[in-house]
Design goal:
The chain starts with a helix and ends in a 6-residue tail after the last strand. The longest helix is centred in the last third of the chain and has 14 residues, at about 135-150. Strands 1, 2, 3, 4, 5, 6, 7 and 8 form an 8-stranded mixed sheet that branches. It is an alpha/beta fold. The protein is globular, with a radius of gyration of 16 Å. It contains 7 helices and 8 strands; from the N terminus they run αβαβαβαβαβααβββ. Bound molecules: S-adenosylmethionine. S-adenosylmethionine binds near residues 46, 97, 98 and 99.
């Protein structure tokens, strides 16, 4: 999706919330490989993630990376910090990859996403990946149950319809909501061969977004 956003949608700014530990092909690496001037703000609420990110996620000189220690539930704080690196008058891709399962319905994840998308201009994008409730149902439910014994935050499984609801008011990019391995395979993703119990989607904010 990051490769698509840079090469086909002209996006040069990313707000990547729920960064995770640095790995291969981090957001700024994929973006800056195609457009070195890309700017990426990483946000995570885990101090271990942030210390690794600060050490390893360094930008190409033409672009920028920044790290914010914040909780996805505190959108005003994230926006106030992100605007030091990103220009909110130009399109931004908001990436929520693997993080929404950690926001229970009682914390209003749909309201959080709407708040973020209201803050970015027309032609911005929302990318989501989310563990699926109904793919490989039994092993996934078992794994979620085990995780919930260990995690302070409870892990929420959501259906394809639940994930589609996050894109309310946005124009879904083809092929819509799919399993992650089926979203434009061959553009740098893991390909068709490895089915993953995750839904994903990419939506564009059009001028008539409400
Ligand atoms: C499953 S990892 C996903 C990592 C990466 N985005 C990916 O897709 O591979 C979820 C990340 O979200 C972070 N996280 C969990 N809850 C969060 C919250 N409420 N606010 C910000 N980050 C959060 C975790 O610390 C973790 O790094």
């Amino acid at each position: 999706m990051v490769h698509y956003l840079v090469t086909e949608a002209g996006i040069r700014q990313f707000l990547d919330i729920g960064t995770g530990l640095p790995t291969a092909n981090n957001t700024h690496e994929v973006a800056q490989r195609a457009a070195p001037e890309s700017r990426v703000v990483y946000v995570d609420n885990d101090p271990i993630v942030l210390s690794h990110a600060k050490a390893l996620l360094t930008s190409a000189p033409q672009g920028a990376t920044a790290y914010i220690d914040a909780d996805l539930r505190d959108v005003p704080f994230i926006l106030s910090q992100a605007e030091q690196t990103l220009d909110f008058t130009r399109p931004i891709a908001v990436l929520l990859l693997g993080v929404l399962p950690l926001i229970p319905d009682s914390d209003d994840p749909y309201g959080i996403v709407a708040q973020l998308m209201r803050a970015v201009p027309t032609d911005s994008y929302l990318a989501i990946s989310h563990v699926a409730r109904e793919i490989q149902e039994r092993p996934v439910a078992k794994a979620a149950g085990r995780l919930n014994e260990a995690l302070a935050e409870k892990f929420v499984l959501r259906s394809r319809e639940d994930v589609a609801e996050f894109f309310a008011g946005l124009e879904l990019v083809d092929p819509g909501i799919t399993q992650v391995n089926l979203w434009r395979p061959g553009t740098g993703g893991s390909g068709r061969a490895r089915p993953v119990p995750f839904h994903c989607g990419l939506g564009r904010k059009a001028a008539d977004f409400q």
